[in-house]
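Minutes, structural biology subgroup

Action item carried over from last meeting: produce the structure token record for Sugar ABC transporter substrate-binding protein (Paenibacillus psychroresistens). EB confirmed the sequence was re-checked against the source entry. Recorded below for completeness.
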Amino acid sequence: MKTSILSTLALVLIVGCSSTKTPAESAATETKAPVESAKVEATASPAPEATKAPETEAPKAEKVKITYSMWGSAEEGNATQAAADKFNASQDHIEVKVEAIPWESYMTKLNTMATAGQLPDTAILKEDAVIQWSTDGMLNDVSAMYEGSDSKPLDSLAYKYQGKTVAYAGANEILLLYYNKDMFDKAKVAYPPSALDKAWTWDEFVATAKKLTVDKNGKHPDEAGFKSQSIVQYGASVENLAWQLEAYALSNGGGFYNNEGTEVRVGEDASIEAIQKVADLYLKDHVAPLSVGQTDDGISRTIIAGTVAMATNGQWNVGTSLNKAKEAGLKYGVAVLPYMKEKVTLNTGGANVVFSQTKHPKEAMEWLKWYSAEENNWGLISSGIWMPTLQKWYTDETLTHKWVDNPNFPPYDEYKSAVVDYAQSSAARPASWFFTNHTTDFNTLLTSTLGDVWTGKKTAKDAISKNLDALKAANKGAK
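Output recorded by EB:
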């Protein structure tokens, strides 16, 4: 996920934890009562001259102390510490201290601490930093975190390095298609499909977008007299942030990288063609507003602003912006993404890691397992900002109803099909930073490379071909 969204979600996590009311059942059932309340009576026989040995307090076992770092203000750190205090009180062998570091200096501070050998035991880490830190030997293998549990996170939420799981996403997020139901109803156009087996092809998506695009004279792009410079309602918008664009490259049979993340594929014809099709929504089809792939506020600029009938972006928008818009009267729906050749959506989620410098990896994993449990982040999940990570919330109908049956979401059947089922389908693939190094440098360069493509000054083929060697070098860590 892009840095701006990472920051937003991390900060909401903190607030969500502070308001959590449901205790972590898994942690509570595996631990003993606090030592402080335990007393024992002497069992030795009394001496002849004594009547009874006095009661003695059992020796207190010293807790293992671990530190968890997160980005945020001191106030937000205090809120997260409140959640940690619940964990600390639930068992008698671990004590977690939270360290909040401002977002702007977060990674700089962690790098300084790493150099000094003073890293915390565990922390949240930017998605695009996980594989780099793994390459440098800074992260522990956390594959054992869910051993013996009744469920583990979806496979697409595991960060992999050399075949080992080095982090699990603290939450699940997928890319979706949002739409304004009133606009569809007014145009008498069928809603986008929420079921994967009925997903629109790209051509069907574009054709529908044309029916929903209107200029000031009521003309559509495929009608004589249509004026592309006086559009009052657009039919579609596809978020063209670099990392989200890969979904369409993959859908067209291409991609940005190979399966190992070691070779660049963005220069392949299939990848270039997919990017050009996204650009042509504005340039040739005249169904989308101009977007230059710089900001991650697409739903606010389109669906919520009331200027676009359907738009792609991440599931987190349900909680971060659409809930308030819904309260204000917006009637919106969710659907699966259109596809070119293969049906694809991307998973992502901020990474909770255990650093290799810790002396207490087992205890750090126990804390992370508790901290990321759905019960302890319920405010985030019920609001629609996060989706659960554990597979049972997707496969157990009782748990799914507990998650989805609330007024913050679209109707149950629609949301379950377009989000819950979609997220565990074969279409769901991990974003490239789950297994690829140097994605920050690559995405930054690709964003710059495509700037002239969105405005039509260059074709995707010309722009990418000219910068392909630099993009390949970025994937290798070369500047």
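Discussion: The longest helix spans residues 74-90.
Next step: EB to file the record with the rest of the batch.
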